[in-house]
């Protein structure tokens, strides 16, 4: 995760800190939130956004991915952190993942419509498209609960 952020932000001076969530805030969410899923990202003591780490399911295995969002809930970066399938690995391609940049919770994200299909990775491409849309929905809930 750190390597992707350093390359994307073109600096090594990045501070990553866990987002602390109170019990009262957790009650306001309609999904389970693990303590290792959210991180604030700072550069030169200025918060730029946050990282949401989540999991999705490909054909046989689960994969782990991160979405870097602004506090206005706009996607800045998507990267696969762990992908163990032999098929569908094309979804790890940075160029393909870049099409998610700019999406917000109000975006209508649809595989094959505004997200390109990938030959040989249909299940994985659909899965991560759906997973990113879900992260955006969850992020909207985080903002409403005052967590981010």
Report on this structure.
The model has no long low-confidence stretch (mean pLDDT 92). Strands 1-2-3-4-5 form a 5-stranded antiparallel beta sheet. The chain has one domain (2-144). The chain has helices spanning 2-9, 23-27, 94-97, 122-144, and strands at residues 14-18, 38-43, 46-57, 62-69, 75-82. The longest helix has 23 residues, at 122-144. Helices cover 27% and strands 26% of the residues.
Reconstruct the topology from this structure.
Blueprint lengths: L1 H8 L4 E5 L4 H5 L10 E6 L2 E12 L4 E8 L5 E8 L11 H4 L24 H23 L4
Antiparallel strand pairs: 1-2, 2-3, 3-4, 4-5
Q: What coarse outline follows from CA principal-axis ratios?
A: globular
Largest sheet composition: 5 strands, antiparallel
User: Helical region count?
Assistant: 4
| Total count of domains | 1
- In N-to-C order, the SSE pattern is HEHEEEEHH
Tell me the span between the first and last alpha carbons.
Answer: 19 Å
Percentage of β-strand residues: 25-35%
Q: How much helix is in the residues?
A: 25-40%
Q: Regions with pLDDT < 50 over 5+ consecutive residues?
A: none
Derived structural class: alpha+beta
Cross-sheet strand order for the largest sheet: 1-2-3-4-5
Strands, count: 5
Describe the structure using short key phrases.
single chain, 148 residues, five-stranded antiparallel β-sheet, alpha+beta, 4 helices
Summarize the structure.
The chain is of the alpha+beta class and 148 residues long. It has four helices and five strands, in the order H-E-H-E-E-E-E-H-H.
């Amino acid at each position: 995760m750190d390597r992707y952020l350093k390359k994307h932000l073109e600096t090594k001076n990045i501070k990553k800190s866990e987002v602390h969530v109170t019990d009262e805030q957790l009650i306001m969410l309609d999904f389970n939130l693990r303590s290792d899923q959210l991180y604030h990202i700072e550069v030169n003591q200025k918060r730029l956004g946050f990282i949401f780490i989540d999991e999705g399911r490909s054909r046989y295995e689960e994969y782990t991915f991160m979405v870097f969002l602004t506090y206005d809930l706009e996607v800045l970066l998507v990267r696969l952190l762990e992908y163990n399938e032999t098929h569908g690995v094309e979804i790890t391609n940075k160029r393909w993942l870049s099409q998610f940049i700019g999406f917000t919770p109000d975006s209508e994200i649809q595989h094959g419509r505004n997200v390109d299909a990938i030959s040989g990775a249909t299940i994985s491409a659909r899965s991560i498209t759906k997973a990113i849309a879900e992260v955006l929905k969850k992020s909207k809930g985080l903002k409403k609960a005052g967590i981010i």
